[in-house]
Amino acid sequence: MTETTLGQTNLLAVFFFLLFVAATLVITYWAARRTRTTSEFYAADRSISGFQNGLALSGDYMSAASFLGIAGLVALRGYDGLIYSVGFLVGWPIVLFLIAEPLRNLGKYTFSDVVAFRLKQRPIKAAAATGSIITVLLYLIAQMVGAGTLVQLMFGMPYEVAVVAVGSLMIAYVLFGGMLATTWVQIIKAVLLLGAATLLVILTLARFGFSYGALFGSASALYGDGFLEPGGLVSNPVDAISLGLALVFGTAGLPHILMRFYTVPNAKEARKSVFYATGFIGYFYILTFTIGFGAAVLVGQEIILSIDQGGNMAAPLLAEALGGSIFLGFLAAVAFATILAVVAGLTLAGASALSHDLYVGVYRNNVSAEKEEVRVAKTSTLVLGILAIVLGIVFKNQNVAFMVGLAFAVAASANFPSLLLSIIWRGFTTAGAVVSSLTGLFLATALIILSPTVWVDILNNPEPIFPLGNPALVSMTAAFAVGIIISLLTRERQAEARFDEEKLRTYVGIGAE
Amino acid sequence: MTDSKTRGVLGDKDFHELCRKRNLVTITLTIVSLLVYFGFIFLIAFGHDLMAHKISESVTLGIPVGIGVIVVSWLLTGIYVYWANREYDTLVERVKDKVNNS
Q1: Chain A nearest C-alpha distance from B30 (Å)
Q2: Chain B contacts of A229, Cβ < 8 Å?
Q3: Alpha-carbon distance A4 to A1, whole Å?
Q4: ipTM value of the model?
Q5: What CA–CA distance (Å, rounded) separates A207 from A294?
Q6: Are B47 and B55 in contact (CB under 8 A)?
Q7: Cross-chain Cβ contact A237/B67 below 8 Å
Q8: C-alpha distance from A511 to closest chain B C-alpha (Å)
Q9: Cβ-count burial of A160 within 10 angstroms (0-12 exposed, 13-18 middle, 19+ buried)?
Q10: Which of A84, A174, A310, A472 has a CB 3.0–4.6 Å from the CB of A246, allowing a cystine?
Q11: What residue spans define the domains of chain B?
């Protein structure tokens, strides 16, 4: 392939994209009439089936960054890209075994409902909401900046226009259609993304007589045997373990993922939805690995690098090489849809932390009229959406890749320890939970600033002060340790007494919302 | 639900059994899935030659191992769901009936 139409306005891409926008806005209009109560706004009235939620969870989780980024990483670094894919999947079994069902049985709309179940509402909700909002904002900035850059690369549209377009659409979905519209945007996106990736893999393999051996053979002929072997990505095992901990336990602390478990009618459907989601996401990463190899062989690293140094355009270039500008247009539109589904989920999770946890839980001390809470939730959506647009523009041309790593580290350190301890440990106290969340949040943030990722790569200092690229090994361990120690020092008899009731609800679901 | 009812169920044999079984299954599966993933990281860090070993003309052992971690993780969720749908839910129903009839 010698030339590409990538970066020029592709009319087909615009057409496919407008089709997606039109369809999702119709759904939003339909959902708006079913989005009046808090249960409808935050949880789609718990009407989503396990299978639907499995698709929506995968649509919430599979970001354009992971699709384009990992395909690019594989195309440029070969085997090492697979190590990343695996890391992003392995958190899901942990979500299922430790969190999904207790969360569904104990909470109402947010994960802080669970932590606050038998502890003191106000301090717990304030601390947990802080962790949620920080996680959501970091993830949201990374997505918005990625969206602006990708749309600019693919459509030739100005960065700011792309960010405003993404932001306005996500506000529209969440503001009017709440969780119901968000869910269906995520389901449609998941189907489109899985379909497009499958087609790309079939077309790729067709070039190699449907033989993976032939594909890998051509890749090693071009780039040497090292392309099929672990390279320099895991040079420091402690670093790899720390990143691994952030990915594994961070997934179980991501507010936008956890929130989705309240959209199903009961714990059994929550359970099934993780099985489906893990299957879809795992399948997707295996496809992405194949796409990366296909791009390396059929497009070539030189061309991929000439378009984008990060390799993000490997998958679109492969689509163009195999299916011309029609397929490129379709894939570009799917990537745009992918971004929208993820940012809508994030906005809804952030808005619920602001309205359900902070406004109702802290400010109103958990007494609020139904109508008022929906109004506050919608105002929060608008505020958060506009903030996301502004931050997306402010962070233009900044290196924000570390923010996803930090979001996972914060989720694993500030959210996950207090959530898990509140479910399993009778002696866990309010003070323990609050100090644990804040320790996790502070340490994760401070250490990543001092780490090679920020201190050296962004602030251009010669030596990092903290040696690990991801702080989870230290920050998560510290959050657990502090949570346990402070709880042992501050007995809370009332909370201990209510543990039996909580236990019955955790295991059997009696009294669940 | 009244406190006396709660206390009744908490002392119940079936409820104990249910908690014990769920803890056993979830803790075992959690440990297995962590061992599988961190074992993979360990192999990459310390078993480079093994992972780079060619198992056919152009496929290194590392490729099926990496894909295998993804597949095994998914199968573990399947094992849990299979167990929970059949055995755990039956126990849950039994305990729920007791609560409703007490």
Answers
A1: 6
A2: 48, 51-52, 60, 62
A3: 8
A4: 0.95
A5: 9
A6: no
A7: no
A8: 8
A9: middle
A10: A472
A11: 3-101
| Torsion sign, CA atoms A199, A202, A207, A213 | positive
The minimal CB distance from A509 to the residues B71, B80, B92 is found for B92
pTM of the model: 0.95
B46 CB contacts (<8 Å, ≥6 apart)?
A237
Burial class for A310, CB neighbours closer than 10 Å (0-12, 13-18, 19+): middle
Q: Which of B72, B12, B75, B77 is nearest to A98 (CA)?
A: B77
| CA A30/CA A239 separation, integer angstroms | 48
C-alpha to C-alpha distance for B92 and B88, rounded to whole angstroms:
6
What secondary structure, in 3-state letters, does A239-252 show?
HHHHHHHHHHHHHC
In one letter, which amino acid is A13?
Answer: A
Amino acid at site A429: T
Calpha distance A476→A447 (Å, rounded): 12
Kindly list the averaged pLDDT for each block of 10 residues, start to end, along chain A of length 513: 67 86 95 93 96 98 87 92 91 97 96 95 96 94 87 82 93 96 96 96 96 94 92 79 94 97 96 98 96 96 89 92 91 90 96 95 85 93 96 86 88 97 96 97 94 87 91 97 97 92 91 84
Give whole-number Cα distances, A237 to A232, A248, A466, B4, in Å. 11, 16, 16, 53
**Residue appearing with tokens 């075994």:** A97
Q: Which of A83, A97, A225 sits opposite B80 (nearest CB)?
A: A97
Q: Give the SS3 label for residue B11.
A: coil
For residues A179 and A41, what is the distance between their CA atoms, to the nearest angstrom? Answer: 6
Domains and CATH numbers, chain A: 11-400 (1.20.1730.10)
Q: For residue A271, which residues of chain B lie inside 8 Å, CB to CB?
A: 80-81, 84-85
Q: How far apart are the first and last CA of chain A?
A: 57
Of B45, B57, B89, the CB nearest to A234: B45
Reading the block at residue A345, the tokens are 């989920």
Contact B58/A78 with Cβ under 8 angstroms?
A: no
Question: What would the two tokens of residue A241 be?
Answer: 């373990």
AA letter at A503: K
Q: Put residue A120 in one of left, alpha, beta given phi > 0 → left and psi -120 to 50 → alpha.
A: beta
Could you give the residue ranges of the DSSP H alpha helices within A62-120?
Answer: 64-77, 80-89, 91-94, 101-106, 111-115
| Nearest CA-CA partner of B80 in A93, A419, A88 | A93
* Per-state percent for chain A, helix, strand, coil, to nearest 5: 80, 0, 20
For residue A99, which phi and psi values (nearest 5 degrees)? -115, -50
- Which residues 76-95 of B have a C-beta within 8 angstroms of A? 76-78, 80-81, 84-85, 89, 92, 95
